[in-house]
Write a structure and sequence with these properties.
Elements lengths: L3 H16 L6 H10 L5 E9 L11 E4 L1 E2 L3 E8 L2 E9 L6 E6 L12 E5 L7 E6 L1 H6 L7 E6 L5 E8 L2 E11 L2
Antiparallel strand pairs: 1-2, 1-11, 2-4, 3-4, 4-5, 5-6, 6-7, 7-8, 8-9, 9-10, 10-11
Length: about 180
Amino acid sequence: MKAILPVLAVTTLIAGCAATPAPGDSRDQFMATLQSMCGQRFEGAQSYAVDPNNEFAGKKISTQVNCSPTEIRMPVQVGEDRSRTWIFTRPTAGLELRHDHRHADGTPDKVTMYGGMAKEGGSARSQAFLADKYTADLVPGAETNVWTVSLSEDGKTLTYRLERHAKPRAEFVLQRVPG
């Protein structure tokens, strides 16, 4: 009986370790969070901007979470302007955010598809995306851009924040619309 106790102890320890799930990749968790929001609408406004008289000032900002198996698209409406879409994808290299800007006729704006990959250390509810070389080449001064997209714990508040040169540049706070 004494010989069997160490075997049982080791077996229990191994089984306990096997039953403990490995921590998941926060980028997968973030995409799962966005997927869980499919169809939800959010409305709000700009809460901060370096230039308080910019094109977003005083306008309602809204989006809806649209999902497909490979991406999350969030068309952003600013007042009557429907030219912007945030696109989240999960390529092998990481988690990516792109900003798709279009003219009213659907053709791409000359400043479009900028963004970058999520940096390390995000969570299931918040990810920060660093500007890539394409963005730095396309938008003068944007080489240090960091876009942070966060969802509150209760799932009711979506925050989009832009920093440049480690200083806040703009922030939108949107509330989930019931229904």
